[in-house]
Design a protein that fits this description.
71% of the residues lie in helices and 3% in strands. By secondary structure, the chain is mainly alpha-helical.
Length: 192
């Protein structure tokens, strides 16, 4: 029972951070940018793409194909809108694999945290996110796409791997390599 006692505090800590990120995103959300195409995109993520869940072998979890749409939301509507869509995706996808409130909230918070980290990284490295696609397919834009995919992947898989390593009492790197390394392909495909 060594490290397993840290599972609940870790999950609730991530949930708290995710909730703070959600509130900050709602506060900073430029409502003027949200239009009918945004609503359609958000509904597409929540209703359709979050239902396509690929089970992760040997753990009670899965990944969705929603990252493409979260990335698209990020590029077209900005980081705050992407965080909201990511939280919606986390909620809907989690409801399909779990009925435990803590797990559902944790998965949504992981999506909020990883999307927020991705947004912050892109803004730090490239400036305004919504200006990136307007420049066309430049080297900077392609670089931003790769940074976006790798950051989202590292943050998302890292946060979840910590929780699984605590549950299984295995080292983080062993857990991440065994269960989450292969999921990198979904992020790279989604960014492409």
């Amino acid at each position: 029972m060594g490290r397993q006692r840290f599972v609940a505090p870790y999950m609730w800590g991530v949930i708290g951070i995710g909730a703070a990120i959600l509130l900050l995103s709602l506060y900073r959300l430029p409502l003027v940018r949200l239009d009918l195409p945004f609503v359609i995109l958000a509904l597409l993520v929540v209703a359709v793409s979050s239902s396509v869940v690929i089970r992760i072998p040997l753990v009670s979890g899965g990944i969705t194909v929603s990252d493409t749409f979260i990335f698209l939301t990020m590029l077209l509507y900005g980081g705050e809108a992407a965080v909201l869509v990511a939280v919606g995706d986390g909620l809907c996808a989690s409801l399909r694999i779990s009925r435990k409130p803590r797990t559902i909230l944790f998965n949504s918070a992981v999506m909020a945290c990883s999307t927020f980290i991705t947004v912050w990284t892109l803004r730090t490295c490239f400036g305004s996110i919504i200006e990136l696609p307007r420049a066309g397919y430049t080297g900077g834009f392609i670089g931003a796409i790769w940074v976006m995919a790798l950051t989202q992947y590292a943050a998302n898989s890292g946060l979840v791997a910590v929780e699984k390593s605590l549950k299984t009492e295995q080292p983080f790197w062993k857990t991440w390599r065994a269960f989450y390394l292969w999921t990198s392909m979904t992020y790279i495909a989604g960014a492409s």
